[in-house]
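Here's what a typical entry looks like (Gamma-interferon-inducible lysosomal thiol reductase):
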Amino acid sequence: MKVLLLLFLAFGYVGSSVYSSCSQSPLNWCSSVGSAVECGVLKSCLHSNYTKSRQTDDLIVVGLYYESLCPGCRQFLVTMLFPTVILLRDIMNVQLVPFGNAQEVKKDEKYVFTCQHGEKECLGNMIETCLMNMSKMAFPIIFCMESSSDVINSAKACTGVYDPSLSWDKVMSCVNGPQGNQLMHENALETAALKPPHEYVPWITINGEHTEDLQEKAMNSLITLVCSMYKGTKPAACGGSQMHYKTYCQNV
């Protein structure tokens, strides 16, 4: 219930005039004074910026190695990772690497990818990879895609909502061209370099480290884990309740 409330708040589905008039993604509310005023969060943004200016401790970096159509990956990204970022964006960063249990082979001058959940997943992985290289709003777009009933067919509409200035033709040019191919190859190399090697997805790293204990804590309550590991002044949002998600796509 708490996660659903967070998502309602994040996307403006609250019945107040403040939120209904807000056209910005929650990750962009504090990007300017105008956005903060429009979304009714000016006071919070001023406090957040003041707090951020006084931060001297390293941010917690949460890495997610995943597949665009893996049910467990989608569940973690939508119900745990994105809400946590909304609440703790001042003390954490996120690194998304869509590849997971895919395989690559080089043929001629390009790489050919085979994905665990078929060609559509390869397309989803590629779209999300290109978006991360082309848009500051990539994470909200990816959240929108992964929370929809059709990850692939929602991509264009989600991009139009959160980054209307980004041409969809440019995104697909990346997806179908050498730029996307090289970016996905880099994802493959980064995934292959994991130590220990990944055994399933979602595979979670905290500050570049993966242990079964960290994985378990992240899956149970990422907000609690990030808050407990951050060494600086903790934001008011720290101290979330525990939720349990243990759905994996095995690396076979």
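The domain at 55-232 is CATH 3.40.30.10 (Glutaredoxin).

More examples are in the samples folder.
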